[in-house]
Amino acid sequence: QQPVQSPQAVILREGEDAVINCSSSKALYSVHWYRQKHGEAPVFLMILLKGGEQKGHEKISASFNEKKQQSSLYLTASQLSYSGTYFCGTPSASTGNQFYFGTGTSLTVIP
Amino acid sequence: GAVVSQHPSRVICKSGTSVKIECRSLDFQATTMFWYRQFPKQSLMLMATSNEGSKATYEQGVEKDKFLINHASLTLSTLTVTSAHPEDSSFYICSASMPGGLKTQYFGPGTRLLVL
Question: Which residue of B has its CA nearest to A88?
């Protein structure tokens, strides 16, 4: 049930762009994105509700391809504060009651 | 809004003892609460989903007799780790979602459990 994310880890210099992918073997009806700083709880970034939807939050945006069962998170002109581990998450396709997080992508932005 | 508290934030206990972790939604009624466990440098693994007034739904491989979950009200869920052992040491995080279909997770700050 757990979505797979790629890459597992990425190191960027300030100002560079990154793409994080989230892929599921099961149908996705919605995709959530979260960021977790070390030792802290995850923080909600955005939710995508239907196929083809794109959303943006400052310089962080995401797309959702329902047919391909994939979502991608785009970070442009990265800032030091973007460092952390990014998780996609999705409700269970069968029951809708459980919630599963992806494998995670560690992002480190260096000066 | 959408604040979730978790207590305690950190606990150290001896092997064989039980530990109770509380999760509260402070400014909304949570129809569903989730309990996750996270080992270092790994993802959050769902342990169980609980709805107020009903039995929790445990994920495969999670012992329901070891990890007791009680969801007595719309704002409080508790996780009790019974007869804790060193391998139970982990970061336990609860989350709550509001009524409706979006299932957006609002997380508590987590509880770091160390079993000696």
Answer: B43
| Binary contact (A99, B93; C-beta < 8 A) | no
Instruction: pLDDT band for A52, please (50, 70, 90 cuts).
Output: low
Which of A34, A47, A44 lies closest to B2 in space, CA to CA?
A44
Of A47, A101, A102, the CB nearest to B104: A47
Tell me which residue of B56, B4, B46 sits closest to B25, measured CA to CA. Answer: B4
**A44 Cβ contact partners less than 8 Å away, ≥ 6 residues apart:** A32, A33, A34, B104, B105, B106
- The token duo for A35 is 């960021």
Q: State both tokens at A64.
A: 């959702």
Check residue A96 and give its pLDDT.
61
Q: Write the pLDDT tens digit of every residue in A7-34.
A: 999 999 999 999 999 999 888 888 999 9
- A93 in contact with B at a CB cutoff of 8 Å? no
Minimum distance, in Å, between the CA of residue A88 and any CA atom of chain B: 10
- For the beta carbon of residue A50, count every other beta carbon within 10 angstroms: 9
